[in-house]
């Protein structure tokens, strides 16, 4: 496998890993805010906060034993912040751009369709961010450096 293919594969894996944590946080945030009948701003805020919490948590989990909490937290922050920011900006912008999606109930097709498509958009936006950072030895490559310890 040539360098570009390997870089793309690593970036795709890093983006999917980050997206999994963000997706859990997004869905949980939207479920909470919809269940509590919150307005748009608090709905977005809780979803973003939970996306960061779960995104970082998913990254930290395999690093806790070898590195300890403090160092695992530093690695997760350095590895995933740019990716999560890109994901959150793009997926929230998409949901806000779809008419009535942000206020759709959990039992609607519009809610789930817009959420799923927003996560695809988030992947597309975050992939080049992760690819660039990994090519420079930053981002998720910091995370992989510690897996062998």
Describe the protein.
The protein has five helices and no strands. It has 149 residues and is mostly helical. The chain has one domain. It starts with a helix and ends with a helix. The model has no long low-confidence stretch (mean pLDDT 87).
Features:
5 helices; 149 residues; mainly alpha; single chain
Tell me, what's the shape?
Answer: globular
State the helical fraction.
Answer: over 70%
Query: Helical element count?
Result: 5
Radius of gyration: 16 Å
Provide a compact summary of the structure.
By secondary structure, the chain is mainly α. It contains five helices and no strands.
Fold topology:
Layout: H1 3-35, H2 40-67, H3 69-97, H4 109-135, H5 140-145
Helix pairs in contact: 1-2, 1-3, 1-4, 2-3, 3-4
């Amino acid at each position: 496998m040539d360098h570009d293919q390997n870089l793309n594969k690593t970036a795709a894996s890093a983006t999917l890993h980050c997206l999994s944590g963000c997706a859990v946080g997004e869905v949980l945030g939207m479920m909470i805010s919809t269940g509590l009948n919150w307005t748009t701003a608090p709905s977005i805020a809780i979803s973003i906060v939970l996306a960061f919490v779960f995104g970082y948590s998913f990254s930290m989990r395999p690093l806790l034993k070898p590195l300890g909490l403090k160092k695992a937290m530093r690695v997760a922050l350095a590895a995933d912040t740019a990716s999560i920011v890109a994901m959150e900006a793009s997926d929230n912008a998409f949901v806000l751009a779809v008419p009535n999606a942000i206020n759709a109930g959990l039992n609607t097709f519009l809610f789930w369709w817009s959420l799923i498509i927003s996560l695809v958009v988030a992947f597309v936006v975050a992939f080049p961010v992760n690819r660039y950072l990994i090519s420079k030895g930053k981002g998720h490559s910091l995370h992989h450096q510690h897996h062998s310890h």
